[in-house]
Design goal:
By secondary structure, the chain is of the alpha/beta class. The chain has nine helices and nine strands. The chain has two domains: 197 residues, Rossmann fold; 96 residues, Rossmann fold (3-Layer(aba) Sandwich), CATH 3.40.50.1100. A six-stranded mixed sheet has the order 1-2-9-6-7-8. It has a three-stranded parallel sheet with strand order 3-4-5, sandwiched between helices.
Amino acid sequence: MTEDWLSCIGNTPLVRLSRLFASERNIAVHAKLELLNPGGSAKDRPAARMLAAALERGQIGPGSVVIESSSGNMAISLAAICSRLDMRFISVIDPKTARQNIRIMQAYGAELERVELPDPATGEFLPARLARVRELLQRIPGSYWPNQYANENNYLAHRDGTMREIVEQLGRVDYVIGGVSTCGTMRGCAAYVRERRMTTQIVAVDAEGSVILGGAKGRRLLPGLGAGIVPPLGQAPFADVSIRVSEGDMVRGCRLLAQREAILAGPSSGAGIWALQQLLPELPDCSVCVVILHDRGERYMDTVYDDEWVREQLGVVL
């Protein structure tokens, strides 16, 4: 028995995707099930570590107000942890935030601050959300901003947790594939690999329409993957291979994962699955691969798993 559910964050299972990636070339593909963290996503790790560091420094405590900009998963993780620690949590969101994520945040007691218009200079919502965070920090005495986009504890949570666990579970790992947004997960995995001079290749997967990995800015409807600006954690190179995936192919990846492996995951996970399928012919025989499945699919039932929405919004017929 454990003291509370916070101690259950991390140590997520690693499972073989033997049906989706059956290969005559003995390529083994495993999924790191970050969606089985208590809060439903990989964001539990950095949320817990950022708040623990702030608690240790005396920046927050019971009754404190934590403010963050998030499209969903980080907000859900922070809302749950703040509730457990008797702190207020305010999430700054925009119109692209999924309704299901909003309901989950509110169930944990989160307060919502909505930004309705994008930043006029960039046309992006993220700078507008960050500006609202700064306004709230000025307005609410003693409030605290974890700043997932620049906080080193974001990527350190994955260096010391996610990647360490993968190596401990598998030993040899040739490729680790995962999506980028704040870049915490993949930068953390890269830091572990570089510090130990491992030969593991870090494959970063971005959305078409995102600029994080150097792509052209364009329309994006699905949250949680990509950004219209390069976040601070993504400004230093960390990936060995970069792949961009369309939102239609993210949906296809999610559907394949559900149909072939009975794993219901979100669009960033579908992007990783689709990217690996494209990369597979180039991989050496007997490669060992890990795809990070970032969050649960139940949060996207009215988008990714809704045929009508996919057809009308993405122009994809499944």
